[in-house]
Amino acid sequence: MPPPTKRRRTEPTAVEEITFDLSARQEYLTGFHKRKLQRAKQAQEAAAKRAKAERIEHRKQIREERKADLERHVREVNALLVPADAAPGVDDERESSGSDDEWSGITDLEPPPIDHEAEYVDEDKYTTVTVEAMDVTREGLFKAGQEDAEENEEQARDASEEPASEKKRRWTKDKPKDAGHRGKKKKRNFRYESKAERKATRYKERSKNKKQARERKSG
Predict the structure, then answer these.
(1) What's the maximum distance between 2 C-alpha atoms anywhere in the chain?
(2) Contact 134, 142 (CB under 8 A)
(3) How many CA atoms lie within 13 A of 61 on its CB side?
(4) Which of 92, 147, 165, 214 is buried most deeply by CB count within 10 Å?
(5) What integer pLDDT is reported at residue 63 of this predicted model?
(6) Tens digit of each residue's pLDDT (9 = 90 or more) over 64-91
(7) How open is the CA angle 187-188-191, to the nearest 5 degrees?
(8) How far apart are the C-alpha atoms of 170 and 176, rounded to whole Å?
(9) Which keywords are on file for this protein (predicted)?
(10) Above 80 in pLDDT, residue 6?
(11) 116 pairs with which residues across the strands?
(12) Long-range contacts of 89-92 (CB under 8 A, 24+ apart)
């Protein structure tokens, strides 16, 4: 047997200092509600991610099913068309029957006359019916072309009847062009005098009155 190993004596490490963080303690004691809200938010985000992945997978399955249905429908249609193409006699019969009866198009039928008269006799009664084309407007019913004729007449009447005020006056020797202006009196221009002009006018009037008074005294 090997000799027993000697165990080294481990000296206990002395803790130099123990610090107590009051802010961390305060945050732990007052943060229960905050941590609860964080866990709820994380759970909601995880649920939203799972729902999104499920929707994507569901849409993928729907697309694959629709694609498979479309391919199956195409195969069925092709299977139905193959026997029809394999029978050449049917097409020949259709072509032969179609060549005999060719379509000549739409035949132009003359419309019945609009403006005409019809006579009806019933025992002792005799009636004449006149059919004419009419135009429908907001004002009522008019004969075809009647409204245009009335407009042309109004335009011609307006052109012929010129207003008297717009007629050009003709000047002659008896009535010259400036005859109306000779009898008119020229209007004087009126304006207000300034303060200096009024003062000068009063001074002139006073000096004139004084001069006349001196002449009367001397005379």
Answers:
(1) 182
(2) yes
(3) 6
(4) 147
(5) 95
(6) 999 999 999 999 998 888 766 565 555 5
(7) 135
(8) 9
(9) Coiled coil, Nucleus
(10) no
(11) 131
(12) none
